[in-house]
Amino acid sequence: MKKLILASLFAVTAMSMLSAAPKAKAKKVLNKDKPLVFFNRQPSDPTTGAIDTSAIKWNDKTYYVGFDAAGGGAVQGKLITDFLASADPAKIDRNGDGTIGYVLCIGDVGHNDSKARTEGIRKALGTWNGSTDPTVKKEGSVTVGGKKFKVVELEGKAMTGTDGSTWNANAATEAMGGWATKFGKAIDMVVSNNDGMAMGCLQASNYPAGVPIFGYDANADAVEAIGAGKLFGTVSQNVDAQAAGTLQVIRNLLDGLTGADVYTKGFSVPDQYGNKITPEVQYKADQRGLFALNGPVDPSNWKSYTEGNRDAGIKQTKAEKKKVLLTIYNSADNFLSSSYLPALRYYAPLMGIDLTVVQGDGQSEASCLDKFTNLKNFDAFAVNMVKTNSAADYTDKLKY
Predict the structure, then answer these.
(1) Domains and CATH numbers, the chain
(2) pLDDT tens digits along 225-242
(3) What's the whole-model pTM score?
(4) What sign does the CA torsion over 127, 129, 130, 136 have?
């Protein structure tokens, strides 16, 4: 009996000692080894458009998420030519000179997406002359209501604000006012690299009534403007697929996925939680990038793109909560603030991601970099740069 009591006491004492022993600490992950996803503004040379390979290969957990820019430019060009093909020539050619004159709002001559949209527009209208430079263009041709017309780009201009910010809607309003005065009835059409600038054009007090105008992004206000007959068309770059895709890649990396699983789980096949993004998202290995496809939005389908439609393929998970620091280059950017950010905030909690969002002024990289701090407190990072060649400024801060 005494032996049994002694044995019991020994067992209890041993268990107490084990429970009192310090628990092993989780291995600390250095910032340089954490997931890093660039989104919306692809690391690249603003002059040549060449991809910044050092940025996208920063570590084995670095990727880019965006949309098919070249394909989007082609979609916008076709949207315009399809509209013209069925239009009334007498209404389109306002001064009856046999020429379709258009003006073009360019977002940023150093931005790959802006270049792709400008190229897509000019190729569709025949005014492409091998350059996205606003001053390099040629005479094109287009079919309007079964009749061939010459096409000229009256003027293309990069919309830069007084503060240096690009894709500036106020600059577009001012430019449109000047164009309407300068070209008068020679303006038969207005085309813009994004919806923000298109809507800015419509704000010009002397905007020529009834002149068709086309944007890009399918922002909520632009979609409503199509329904109201003010905007004639835009292009959806599947913002929900992009936002959910940005978070999905981060979630996959945080969950320890590697190789093809990073860009297939939750995309082409369900992830471990049963989630799968509904629209097609393509992976390009040479760019370590996932790209959402684009679609035209016009009076025939605008209701399908009204605000509030979210991807039913993404549902609430029980994933371990992780902290992610995310930068947005410009708090005033219409697409990012009114479309992309709300989508991010919707999908993040479903995926167990606690987002901290910092926003810049669209002009100075420091406006984002100065808030890209306390990095050790975060498990992963998502970066939207002010300038596409600024990736090294962020990776330099992640070296330690």
Answers:
(1) 31-67+239-394 (no CATH), 70-236 (3.40.50.2300)
(2) 999 999 999 999 899 999
(3) 0.79
(4) negative
